[in-house]
Amino acid sequence: IAPDIIIHCAAQPSHDKAASIPFDDFDTNAVGTLNLLEYTRQYCDKNAIFIHMSTNKVYGDGPNNLKLKELDKRYDFSDKKFIDGINESFSIDRCLHSLFGASKVAADVLVQEYGKYFEMNTAAFRGGCLTGPQHAGVALHGFLSYIVKCAVSGKDYTVFGYKGKQVRDQIHSYDVITAFDNFIADPRQGEVYNIGGQKINSASVLEVIDIITELSGKQLNYSLSKQNRIGDHICYYSDMTKFKKHYPNWTPQYSIKDIIQEIIDNN
Predict the structure, then answer these.
(1) What is the pTM of this model?
(2) 222-225 and 157-160 as β-strands: parallel, antiparallel, unpaired?
């Protein structure tokens, strides 16, 4: 029996790893998404719902070209246009993505095209940092989980570039799923939504270190490297105005401190 709802979260998720396995990366992220879309089109009911977990990396390093202000422990956007963060109208073109970002762009556009061209219920959710107590972070992926793990275990941590002031927004997996639930209840065709912790749940690496110390009493042993990761965002948090306009009943339940406390408790 064909499914009524497909939530596609499978991916090769690492920028750095993609450079050493470009064919595997593209086959997984782009071709894998095409296979699932075509399966949905051919074998599922015409009202079936296809949700794709995309990424904010489809915007490449474009956000780094925005004017930023440097504060004591973080960078932030200077232009009031971006007071709520990056929205879906931000260009995904003419920037550096990493091969991972490029394969995810291909998948993202395919999801949009199948929705609009074949009139299917599809949405690409462009995630910020998605996390939770079971997040299995490693040095090059899953920043929040990994930095908490290092603090709790006493392992040394290296901050790559930007003086530790680079900013990310964090959203709990529960709040991601409730957003999906809202889309499933009232689906649209070929939509794109940013999904993340938004400005309220944004924090720099230095600010996260402070929160970990506050909540756990653990002092992280860290060093600052001047070398940033290729294509890494200096400042990024998700503007979810569009999604909240379409689905006004959705309200995230977890603050960034709630998220970090859960991860601490699970380590």
Answers:
(1) 0.95
(2) parallel
